[in-house]
Amino acid sequence: MPVSERADVLVVGLGAMGSGTCAQLAARGASVIGIDQYDPPHPLGSTHGETRMTRVAVGEGAEYVPLVRRSHELWREIEADTGTRLLTQPGGLIMSRPGAWFFEGTRELARRLGIEHEELSPAELRERFPMFAVDEQTEGYYEPEAGFVRPEDAVRAQLELARRAGAELRLRERVLSWSASRHGVGVVTDRARYTGGQLILCAGPWLPELFPEGRDLFAIYRQVQLWFPIRQGYEQLRSMPVFVWDFGGERGDFVHFDGFYGFPAVDGLSGGIKVATETYETTTMPDGYQHPPTAAETAAMYHHCIECRLPWLGPEPVRGLSCLYTSTRASRFVIDRHPEHAEVLIVSACSGHGFKHSPAIGEAVAQWVTDGHPQLDLTRFGLAHAARASTH
Ligand SMILES: Cc1cc2nc3c(=O)[nH]c(=O)nc-3n(C[C@H](O)[C@H](O)[C@H](O)COP(=O)(O)OP(=O)(O)OC[C@H]3O[C@@H](n4cnc5c(N)ncnc54)[C@H](O)[C@@H]3O)c2cc1C
C-alpha cells in the first residue's frame, strides 16, 4: 500500500452531500481529498433518476426553509460557474383532501412565512391543471418558486468545481475503516491510506457501515421511480408543475409520507412522466446492484396512483429504477459531530427529502469545518434530536 496522503479534510462519499461539501471546502482554500467507492453520479445509492423536487414551504418543518432558500441561490451560482442548467422552476402543486399533515403543514408554513402561493379549490384545480382527475374534496396548494433539480448533473457540476478548486478526488476506491484521535483522522481504503485534520462521512445509505454507533437511528428503504408513457396532452404535461398527491396517511416512526409525486415531461414525448411513491414495509442495505421495479410494484403504482388520477398516462412504463432512502424517525437530517470524535462529522440528509438542501448543507458543513461554526443553524439536525425525534 502506498505511503499515505494528507489533506486538511477527508470526505467519504461524493453523492449529493459529499460533492457539495467538497466543492465548498475547496472553494474556501481547504485541501481536500474526496473518496468514493464508485464514480458518481451512479445509480446505486440515493442520487439518481434525473429529477429531484424542490419547494420552499418545506412541509417537513420550518427549520428546512433557510436551507432550501440558500440552495436555490447556490444552484444558480453553480450553474453560472459550470455552464449547466440544474434548477428549473415550473412551480409545484400539492393536492390533498383537507387535514393531511403534509398538505396542511405546507399551507400553514407558507402562510406564516409569507411564501408566495395560491390555494386552489377543486374547481380551480380542474380548470388549471386538467391532467389531474381530482374529486370534489381535493384542494390544491400551488407554489411558483417550486420545481426540480437535475441530480446527476448537480453532482457532476459540484465535483467539477471541487476539482477546479484543487480537491483531489479518489474514485472507485472503497473506504474500509477510519480512525480518529485528537491528533487528526486516518482512513484506510482498498488502495491507500489517508490522513487529515478532519473527516466528513457523507456515505448515504452506506453510513451505518461507517458509523455503526448510529445504526439504530437509520433505516434504509428501497423506493421505486417509474416513467409512465404519455397518451395525450404532451404540451400541457411538458409545462405542468412538479406535483405531490398527499393521501393523508399517518406519519410516524420512519414513515415519511403517504401518497405519490411526479414531474413534468422533461424528456420529450417518448420520455414519459416520472412518478414515485414511498414504501416502508421492509428495510434493506445497499449491495452494489440496481434493483429495478418488479412487475407487481409497477402494477400497484399504476392501479393505486396513476389510473384514476393521471388518466393521460398509459400503464406500461417506459423506464424504472429503484433508489435508496436513508430514513430517520420523523424524517430528520443528521448533521453533527461524531459523539466520540469531534474531528469527525456525520452528514446524513435524506429521509426522501434531502437533495433540495444539498448545496446549502455542503456550504454549512464547509463553514463548520473551516471557520468552526456554520452560518445557517444546524442545531435541529443534531444526533440528539434524531435520537429523541417524534413527528411532532
Ligand atoms: C427515489 C428517491 C426520490 C427522492 N426524491 C427527492 C426529492 O424529490 N427531493 C429531495 O429534496 N430529495 C429527494 N430524495 C432524497 C435525496 O435524493 C437524498 O437526500 C440525497 O440524494 C442523499 O445524498 P447522499 O449524498 O447522502 O447519498 P448518496 O448520493 O447515496 O451518496 C453516498 C456516496 O457515498 C459513497 N460511499 C458510501 N460508502 C462508501 C465507502 N465505504 N467508501 C467509499 N465511498 C462510499 C457511495 O458510493 C455514494 O456515492 C429522494 C431520494 C430517493 C431515493
Features:
about 400 residues; alpha+beta; FAD/NAD(P)-binding domain; binds flavin-adenine dinucleotide; eight-stranded mixed sheet
Summarize the structure in words.
The chain has 392 residues and is an alpha+beta fold. It has a domain at 5-50 and 152-215 and 330-388: 3-Layer(bba) Sandwich (FAD/NAD(P)-binding domain), CATH 3.50.50. The protein has 10 helices and 19 strands. Strands 1, 2, 9, 10, 11, 12, 18 and 19 form an 8-stranded mixed sheet that branches. The chain has an 8-stranded mixed sheet with strand order 6-7-5-14-15-16-13-17, with helices on both faces. Helix 1 (16-27) links the parallel strand 1 (5-12) and strand 2. Helix 2 packs across helix 9 (358-371). The chain is globular and about 65 Å long. The protein starts with a strand and ends with a helix. The mean pLDDT is 96. It binds flavin-adenine dinucleotide. Flavin-adenine dinucleotide is lined by residues 12-18, 35-38, 40, 45-47, 49, 52-53, 174-175, 202-206, 210, 223, 225, 276, 323-325, 349-350, 352-356.
